[in-house]
Model the fold of this input.
Amino acid sequence: MYVAVKGGERAIEASWRLLDKSRRGDTRLAELSVAQIREQLRLAVARVMTEGSVYDEELAALAIKQAAGDLVEAIFLLRAYRTTLPRFGYTQAIDTEAMQVERRISATFKDVPGGQMLGATYDYTQRLLDFALLAEGDAGNDLATTPASIQAAQSAVEAMPRVVTLLDKEGLIEQERPTPDAPEPGDLSREPLAFPASRATRLQNLARGDEGFLLAMGYATQRGYAHTHPFAGEIRFGTIAVEMELDELGEAVEIGDIDVTECQMINQFAGSSEVPPTFTQGYGLAFGHSERKAMAMALVDRALRAEELGETLASPTQDIEFMLSHSDNVEASGFVQHLKLPHYVDFQSELELVRRLRAQHSAEGQDQGKNQDHDQQEQAA
Done:
């Protein structure tokens, strides 16, 4: 705490009031509601839910409002709240092949079972500012004005098989299938990260990791800092049911639906003496519509499998400890921002040390100068 700052606790309380005032902004303008953030800033809400490890759109929107749009701070707020919640149990693994797809594309096959669905995306827009959005009020783009063909497509979503199953039929791509003796995955939200880390733990860490960090590292893997050549096998976004087994009923029941984005990256693999040449996968999964995060996660996941696949470790993007230890934005932000806290005693000791070293350096310089003068006098004599 800044107890040494003039005013002490009163100064801190005044800072809180200033923060509230700054967050509210000009009171002549209508206040931004949590509902508006939830509905109109859905991509920001999706990121906060994913990296905050809580699927709750309203709480994520509230955190964004409280943080004045600082998403890393909002993620911190959501994680902190998460620690106060009771744990009732674990849901069953979701089957994304049963997803009610809203958007689904593949860069590996033109014609895929179920077809390609472009959905709502910025991918096909021109990156030009739309000044029409400066006009106040709704533009009227609601269900009543949506073309019937689009309404029909939106209501006709159905389960679609994964694209990688086309390769799996020929045995050309690895497939991870659960085994009865497989250990239960750990829970990073309750247990600290430890090494060596299993792939399940790594994927949890990457899902909670900072999108910007993963994006940069995924970019690095494409620029040669990993032995990978990725293809976007499939990227899909949609709604999936969540099931939980209830002891009282003795069976699993649906407890709700969530929106998720899944990415499967396909990579070349030369094989080995035991494994024939095949394709391998990198995997990404995130809450809400989070394509960039899921893609970056899949790229990094594949790079981190280098040792498992017998590839040469030649890049930080393949170093599991380096990547997992520095991907979390809450930890990174806390460690960087702790430098704002008082370090008076530490700095005074450093300052005193530098002064002593400078004095010693000056004294040594004077002694050296005297020795040089003495040598010159002896030579002159």
